[in-house]
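Re: Re: token formats

Sure, here are both.
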Amino acid sequence: MKKQIIFLTLLIFGCSTTDLTKIETADELFKKAKKEYTDENYLDAIETFKELLLRFPANTIADDAQFYLAECRYKRAEYVLAASEYDYLIKTMPSSNFVDYANYKKAISYWKMSPIYPLDQKYTVLAIDELQNFVETTKLANLKSDAEKRILQLNDKLAKKIYESSLIYYKMHYYRSAITYCDLLTEKYPDSKYINYALLVKAKSFFEREKSKLKTSQKDFSKSLKVIDELKEKQINSEIEQETEFLLTSIKENQKQS
């Protein structure tokens, strides 16, 4: 029994001695994690960066570790987690030199999650908000320019979603709803490339509403004509011009009949 106790004691102390020799400093852990990151072993790097942050939260390289932890998530296309890790750095390490760039990468993480226009655009809206915040606060001129371009791209996607909705309602003969969506597009995205198309849908919707009235009813195409006048003041492509002329002809024919 005594021999067994002695053996166990030696084993425990032996293991403890071995473990103590393997304890790494913050710099050693960071060097190890950075190599794993460079070698694209992102899962290993994540664990090592997390260990560093757990053991050395107040170390001067903690913000480096936090930033690269977020970068690992980003590289693995884990954009929700990446955004969360960037956000943690921004909020808990505000004096870090990484904060400005972390703001940018947080926004880009949401931008990466922005889906095609028919789908729910929650992340598109989040991306626009974060990119706008970055534009207003950053000192990085090249990234500011990039962020502004991405905002325009995302706004264009939201405008397209509204325009396509108006078109769907028009085709379903829900003309009031089609007009509402056209007005929404004009209000929210007045510089969108879909504005002229939306105005055409609006003019056609007003026309169809009047045309569908009973023959005994007085038909008033003034609203449709007003939108057509608005279109004529704009630079429109040949497709819209042709459809506008066809609509004008249809209005004149209906006016003769009423």
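Second one below.
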Amino acid sequence: MARLGAACALALLCPDLSAAQSREDALEPPTGEVVLALRGNISRTNREGRAVFDEAMLAALPATVLETTTVVTDGVKRFDGFLMRDLLDHVGAVGETVTATALNDYVIDIPMEDFERFDVLVATHMDGQRLLPSDKGPLWIVYPRDDHAELQDIRYDYRWVWQLIELDVK
């Protein structure tokens, strides 16, 4: 009974406890130019129901390196960035599909399962050079195609979104 009384007193003193709790779960706002936005079924946001990131925020995610070939470059390339699953976990994403949108309005649905099965990278650098919008940047979804024969299928090639600007979790 004492616990119930304490809970009621706390509710009276803090009527907006859930709002305070959600503020604690909110992402910090970006201080630089926004380079990526996430929306849809995410639980952590920082701008009107979306999660927006500048380069510094993305650089704070665990770094990953991937060496692989691509269908649009010659030879094996080294990609630096972060795993898509780490980004999705960071924003509390839940769903079956992620719709990726590029600067040129290219849009494709990618099964969330891809990000659990494979170490799909969101690359910020290729061969040590920062990816720029003039050459597939600032962000490029890269699959570890040399590590899995099934990823050398054209269905996966369509999921390599360069000039990535938005993800919508459904």
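The helical segments are 2-13, 17-25, 55-59, 84-90, 113-117, 154-157. The longest helix spans residues 2-13.
- S.
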